[in-house]
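Entry 0007
Protein: DUF3108 domain-containing protein
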Amino acid sequence: MVLLSLRTATALSALGLLGACATLAPVGTPVPAPHARAGDTWTYAVYDGYRGTPKGTERYVVRRVTPHAIVVSVETGAGALTRTFSLEWNPSAGELPEQRLADFTPPLPAFAFPLEDGKRWKGTVTAVEAKTGRRYSVHVSARVAGRETIETPAGSFDTVRVDRAIYLDNDEWWRSGTRWYQSEWYAPAVGRSVRYQDYSEYTDYTKSNDEFLIRSQIIPGDKTVLELTAPTSLK
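Output (structure tokens):
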């Protein structure tokens, strides 16, 4: 219980750091949940967040919408995967840091509509890694940062930015769990985010340098940016 409280405090501090670089405009009228339709398509350019170099594209195509879920084909250069989201675009499966694919129960709470000024939410889900079957908890702390107009390859969009700090209970004797930070710009006009960026890190307890009294080392993970290149239509 104490450990969870420390993680929550760390996550909230990280959210403050994510939002410290700029003061955003108020959201104003709360933004409702999207209404996805079969055939909706969004294509994103993927970049290495450290160097800005292209890493390919991701194309999301809505195959069907049920009363409780959005079923999407995610197409990349490596092929296509079927992914299921809640009606609020909360994923039932996805890629974790360190290139780990996992299923989430319940869906990861990436969004909590309506998006409105000052809104914050938290949630804990169970992740099961697809390759290893390893099971652990994932803790999410998120907030609405404000309204922001951004430029993407697909054009200029009025967006609401959501910041998240996520902690994975995938620690081992030699390392901490993974800390994962995300910012996402949701555009009501297209019913989905038009920009996403993240980075991750963990602490390696075995790294040491007696000369400088360093007993552990923060190991940075991937940093990724996605930007919309082409929506099929505006809402």
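Curator remark: The CA atoms of residues 32 and 114 lie 4 Å apart. The helical segments are 2-18.
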